[in-house]
């Protein structure tokens, strides 16, 4: 039996040109500018249900926003209170009840390490636990195991 493939209309001389056209010419509409962070935003992630998104920044803050227009800050936490240099990444669990935040933590003199914090977003925004990730970056080696455990956490 034969297999039929559908190739989309190619509006370019070659695939590289088409790729560049699609990447460079994506239609964008600016709806609002969010200015709550005071330094570079390193990561944005949306909750699974699409109602919220979180941002991590070099200003040390992790912010949870409502996704509706206009976006509003629902929760804010200054990770510098925990001796963090900045917040770097965040990830929602499957049920959108917990937010995992990772970042750079000031250790002993001239030493930094990674750290992971888990926040409950139900009935407020409360820190549930913190785990050091040393050497810094080790979290990426065990990312899938931690993600599997995190998705099944229930506080």
Describe the structure.
This protein is mostly beta strands. The chain contains 2 helices and 8 strands. The strands form 2 sheets. A 4-stranded antiparallel sheet has the order 1-2-3-4, with no helix packed on it. A 4-stranded antiparallel sheet has the order 5-6-7-8, with no helix packed on it. Mean pLDDT is 80; it is low at 137-145.
Number of helices: 2
How many strand units?
A: 8
Rg over alpha carbons: 20 Å
SSE sequence, one letter per element? HEEEEEEEEH
**So what's the oligomer here?**
single chain
* Overall morphology: globular
Q: Strands of the biggest beta sheet: in what spatial order? A: 1-2-3-4
| Integer average pLDDT | 80
Which class do the helix and strand fractions yield?
Answer: mainly beta
Q: Runs with pLDDT <50, length 5+?
A: 137-145
End-to-end separation in angstroms reads: 53 Å
Keywords:
155 residues, four-stranded antiparallel sheet, 8 strands, 12% helix
How are the SSEs ordered, and which strands pair?
Elements: H1 15-24, E1 41-46, E2 52-57, E3 61-66, E4 73-78, E5 84-92, E6 98-106, E7 112-120, E8 126-133, H2 143-151
Antiparallel strand pairs: 1-2, 2-3, 3-4, 5-6, 6-7, 7-8
Quick gist of this model?
The protein contains two helices and eight strands; from the N terminus they run H-E-E-E-E-E-E-E-E-H.
